[in-house]
Amino acid sequence: MHEWLAILGMMAVTVAIRASxxxxxxxxxxxxxxNRALHYVxxxxxxxxxxxxxxxxxxxxxxxxxxPWLVGTLVSLAVAFKTGKTLLAIVVSxxxxxxxxxxx
Length: 104
Prior knowledge:
Structural class: mainly alpha
Number of helices: 5
Oligomer: single chain
Number of strands: 0
Helix content: over 70%
Largest sheet: none
């Protein structure tokens, strides 16, 4: 029962936060410094999700060249910086990861 209350509470808070932007969005203006800072949130969240899996796919640190998650991530990073195309970086990293998993 406590789990359901926690889930319902989290749902209520999430809906309230999102609804507040819809209701008060026209009257709510963030300062410029906050708007600039919010542009970095997606990259920070994505990094927080990807880096632990790339560095420790089995739960232990694995930085050897044979780690397909790490190599795929590094290739994706290089392609993204070189071309600036996110979709291309993702596709190339999947190809590298798949080739390493299939060949090794």
